[in-house]
TrEMBL record:
KW Cytoplasm (keyword) present: yes
Cellular component terms per the entry's GO annotation: axoneme; kinocilium
UniProt-listed GO biological process terms: axoneme assembly; cilium movement involved in cell motility; motile cilium assembly
Family: Belongs to the flagellar radial spoke RSP9 family.
The protein, known as: Radial spoke head protein 9 homolog
Alphabetically ordered keywords of this record: Cell projection, Cilium, Cilium biogenesis/degradation, Cytoplasm, Cytoskeleton, Flagellum
Main location: other
PANTHER family referenced in this protein's UniProt entry, alphabetically: MITOCHONDRIAL RIBOSOMAL PROTEIN S18, RADIAL SPOKE HEAD PROTEIN 9 HOMOLOG
Keyword Heme: no
Subcellular location: Cell projection, Kinocilium; Cytoplasm, Cytoskeleton, Flagellum axoneme
InterPro entries referenced in this protein's UniProt entry, alphabetically: RSP9
Amino acid sequence: SLNCVEWSLLPPATEEMVAQAEQLKGRFQGDPSFEYEYTEINAEDAERLFEDGKEPVIKEEARLIATIEQIDRAVGIIPRGAFVKTPLGSVHENRNFEGLSLTEAKKLSSYFHFSEPVNLKNKTLLEKADLDPSTDFLDSLEHDIPQGSWTAQLEKGGTVVVLRSLLWLGLTFYHVPMSKQYGYVYFGTGEKNLDLPFML
């Protein structure tokens, strides 16, 4: 939005936009038309961009789209059982999901990344034997690297579980145990906390 009254959806991010945005450092300027120049681009990539008729710049709007995509991939999470995978491979919202119990809601293993699984494919057959293929088809937070990149807290007298990401500072996830209420929101600078391994 340019005036905070009329809103429109951002276009989907491409892999090229995400790769370009990962090279940029520093905070956002607040101007969608602002152009960032690549300071650490190698000569070969710069030559390829010039041959394609593109300048080695990226607009802030494209950086914003790519950053939102990065945050969703890295720290977009759901409670275990909120979505189910059918035997044919399609994923649907679980209408029978009634929330996690309070003891389950306190465990990081009860929350999954809502993105294509990476670590699940590397598990052994013995590890996969204990998993339910209809609900455990995503990567769990307990195996995130670095260990300790999530904080779990009980709030409102133990009625709400709040998870916060230390990798993307400003990402807050909430779940009300024994209910269908869950979600996450990000209020941050759009910068990844690259110092996290040294802070733990």
